Amino acid sequence: MVTLNLAPEQRLRLQNLAGTQNGEAFRFLGFSLNLQTGEFIDELQKGAADPEVSNPTMHHQITELLLEYSGAAKKILSRKQVKFRMFPGGIAYENAFLRKAVDPIAKIFAAQPELLVAAGVLLGGRKLELGQASVEISAFNLVPITYILWVDEELPPTANVLYDESANSYLNAEGLANLAELTTWRLILAQKLLKNP
Questions:
Q1: What is the pTM of this model?
Q2: How is residue 31 annotated by DSSP?
Q3: Which of 25, 28, 74, 94 is deepest in the core (most CB within 10 A)?
Q4: How far apart are CA 162 and CA 125, in angstroms?
Q5: Residue ranges with strand state E in 66-172
Q6: End-to-end CA distance of the chain
Q7: Residue pLDDT, tens place only, 118-155
Q8: Are 39 and 33 in contact, with CB atoms under 8 Å apart?
Q9: How far is the C-alpha of 102 from the C-alpha of 153, rounded, in Å?
Q10: How far apart are CA 94 and CA 83, in angstroms?
Q11: Rounded to whole angstroms, how far apart are CA atoms 96 and 59?
């Protein structure tokens, strides 16, 4: 069992941001966090003997993201999508962001774009009508991330990742990059599970 090291007041703030009731779990990206105990469950890999992790420090990174997110005040979505580089500090992290969050989408999903949507829906996302395939995923409540994939016979596949303009009210540029990297990893994991149930 994994327990995330979040103080009770931080778990309460997460509950308020997510709009959950007492006893309800905070759910994001196929994960479930018990807000009473801090117990952290990977719902996608429930029952797996050896659940896959994105990297050895994944649980620590998720804790850091949740700590930063829990310190934010709710802000209404602007419904205006922007590229990562538009956020303060985004340009500094852009190359790593493209390499870790965007490029893997084009590489993994180009052969079967419909799996991007199916994987996104498995993570609680909704299909959009952009590009060859697109999906909007609420990585955290009020922090939607949009993935768009373009596939053309004459050009290499490309992808784009967009945020709601309000996203930096919840996380700084580094946090937004880390959240997109985590979301990309979860999409790829969901795609593997869909292909090999």
A1: 0.93
A2: E
A3: 28
A4: 14
A5: 81-83, 126-128, 133-140, 143-152, 155-164
A6: 23
A7: 999 999 999 999 999 999 999 999 999 999 999 988 88
A8: yes
A9: 20
A10: 10
A11: 20
The rounded distance, in Å, linking the Cα atoms of 154 and 163 is 28
| pLDDT tens string 145-189 | 999 999 988 889 999 999 999 999 999 999 999 999 999 999 999
Which residue type is seen at 121? V
State whether residue 45 is helix, strand or coil: helix
- Cβ contacts of 87-92, under 8 Å, gap ≥ 24: 87/163, 87/167, 87/168, 87/173, 87/176, 88/168, 88/172, 88/173, 89/172, 89/173, 89/174, 90/173, 90/176, 92/173
Classify the phi-psi angles of 89: left when phi > 0, otherwise alpha if psi is within -120 to 50, otherwise beta: left
- Please, what CATH class does the domain formed by 81-195 belong to? alpha beta
